[in-house]
Amino acid sequence: MDTFLGFDAVTLARIQFGFTVAFHFIFPAFSIGLASFLAVLNAMWLRTRQETYLRLFNYWIKIFAVTFAMGVVSGIVMSYQFGTNWSVFSDRAGPVIGPLMAYEVLTAFFLEAGFLGIMLFGRDKVGDGLHMAATALVAVGTAISATWIISVNSWMHTPQGHLIGENGQFLPADWMAIVFTPSFPYRLAHALTGAYLTTALIVGGVGAWHLLRGEHDNRGVRRMFSMAMWMAAIVAPLQIVIGDAHGLNTLEHQPVKVMAMEGHFESYPDGAPLILFGIPDQDAGEMRHAIEIPKLSSLILKHDLNAPLDGLDTVPDEDEPPVAIVFWSFRVMVALGFAMLGLGLWSLWARARGRLFYSPWLHRAAVLMGPSGLIAVTAGWITTEVGRQPWTVYGLMRTEDSASPLDALAVGTSLIAFIVVYFAVFGAGVIYLLRLMAKAPQRGEDGPKQDEGPTHAAGRHAMQEDAT
Q: Where is the stretch described as Disordered (predicted)?
């Protein structure tokens, strides 16, 4: 069959891979940062011997174990899709991406798997030093895993260091150039800081939830909320700076993607506006009902109000990405990024006033922002990957030429099966994670003494203990 529910086989294969990747990535985006958070908690426990850190470690390691397991299981499926739905791409690009993905398994996954058991169960069996080393190596392994995957993806966006053989295969010629493509450092920094920020927001949301439920005298709750808000206040502005640098790099190497992100259907010889909102009409080649700030896009992208910027009117129609998806996913990511910055600044203001643990509206905002990191990284991934279309290997291999020769019915049926199984299995896993988070950490240590006063004295006591 040529179509299934109105979609051809290539479109269905893209939807299937996009669905499985988006579902998978929410788990590594959380576990990468959570592994580092656990390493910090363990190090603080060994250094200070404050029971709060140990109890927080024991609280979050259960959540990490479930998240890590779901990330591994959901990621296995994607490798099979390279052979089933994208066999032509696998054949042609395999000599380049195959070794890189194998390095990820040999270095990062084996490192994580080798020390995960010690991290989870070995504290009373191997001693504090080896247990700390295992915890740190698991955290390092998650970062190395992200490094190899980002390297593969970056080569697909900014390919270099290869030759094209007589049979059309991409053959490695310079591995250093393949690994360290022009977009690689920006993508890696953006992905890792996004993962750490995602974890901070989830931890902060859990802490805020328990503060709203009256756990003000629980030192574990206060400590996790304080640490998360410090992380948000520091990393959110850093992520905006890195994102801006990443955008400038994308403008240099993938200008068509930036045109779609900005919604520039037409060229601007005397300065391009920043379109805040609008309705992209790709068929008509215009942005309807646009709300824009004159010349601000040129200032951001070129640091010159009057700098000219090309638009999609300079690009052949068959080389344009789906503008509406890229335009709106980019705005979701940016809006959430500035909301994270606002939450971090709000927490600093509350901390300075001694109200960090006694500000209900801040806590409600933190709970609301808890899943925002997951949404932002998903929106960023959509912007990046949909903006690369219609190319699998940018400028060299089209998506329509990368797919396996399958009927739309076969791909559509497997897509429906994936959706049903994923929501059933991983939905149950997410519900279990939420139940774990709904329970407050064990108290362990006494909270503020009753004679310190109900609010201002307790807030002062909390500030003194959580200032570190």
A: 443-468
